[in-house]
Amino acid sequence: MECVEVSKVFKGDGVSTYALEDINVTFEEGEFVAIVGPSGSGKSTILSLLGTLDLTTSGNVTYNGSPLNEYSSRKLADFRFENIGFIFQQFHLLPTLTALENVMSPLFSRKVPYNKKERAETMLNQVGLQDKYNSLLSQLSGGQQQRVAIARALVHEPNWLLADEPTGNLDTDTGEIIFDTLHGLNRNKGCGVIVVTHDSELAERADRIVEMKNGKIVRDTRKQAYA
Ligand code: ADP
Ligand code: ADP
């Protein structure tokens, strides 16, 4: 997944805000990346563009060399289903449904070659919620709800999990559990993870740290692989 000369400008009341300015960056399959930087530096914007929740003003987001700007909305929807899972600071789950129903929800309108309920149960097992299938969302703690959100984001086995401040509403210990969960899924399932966070301690757990400032990438470092 790649950003090629990507800029994003928000226009309003005669003022233009450059949320992103001429970004070039490549994310490799299977990487665990943290995007850090101060509030307003463009972290959420770049994640939205990578997840095709929004379009660039200029430049292109490409996937295996193919520019997403040129996709029809139908093709984009299929692209997202195949490749992208998204989680947010506010979990964006359906409070009147059970954990299992929430995890199954992305599959409701899709034809898939597997049993939807079994797949959703497997995902809940993988985030440690094997005893919560039938709990209503409102009966779960914040950390448990975020784990449901992770299970839902990955139930269709996308290649990438994009997470925007997934620990922002959680206490430190719970935030660490969420990060460990993301780590485990990255290692076991091989899905790439890109996490936006302003918590630099959590960011240190990633393999690669991309730091943003004023809509630009000011640092991009990879951890040395263990010998
Ligand atoms: P971060 O996630 O690092 O806090 P954002 O990507 O949310 O930063 O925002 C980058 C800049 O773009 C900020 O100046 C923000 O105010 C502006 N911005 C983001 N989204 C919008 C929007 N929908 N309309 C107008 N300005 C926006
Ligand atoms: P985050 O906490 O993930 O950084 P933000 O507070 O930056 O989120 O943005 C939350 C939402 O508000 C996003 O959809 C973003 O596009 C929008 N937004 C951010 N800044 C502005 C702004 N200056 N004007 C209008 N919308 C904005």
From TrEMBL:
Pfam families assigned to the protein according to its UniProt record, in alphabetical order: ABC_tran
InterPro entries: AAA+_ATPase, ABC_transporter-like_ATP-bd, ABC_transporter-like_CS, MacB-like_ATP-bd, P-loop_NTPase
GO function term, MF aspect, one: ATP binding
SUPFAM superfamilies: P-loop containing nucleoside triphosphate hydrolases
UniProt entry tagged with the keyword Transcription: no
Keywords, in A-Z order: ATP-binding, Nucleotide-binding, Transport
UniProt domain ABC transporter: residue ranges: 4-227
Protein origin, superkingdom: Bacteria
Family, as annotated: Belongs to the ABC transporter superfamily.
UniProt cross-references to PANTHER family, sorted A to Z: ABC TRANSPORTER ATP-BINDING PROTEIN MG467-RELATED, LIPOPROTEIN-RELEASING SYSTEM ATP-BINDING PROTEIN LOLD
Protein name stated in the entry: ABC transporter ATP-binding protein
Source organism of this protein record: Virgibacillus kekensis
Lineage of source species: Bacteria, Bacillati, Bacillota, Bacilli, Bacillales
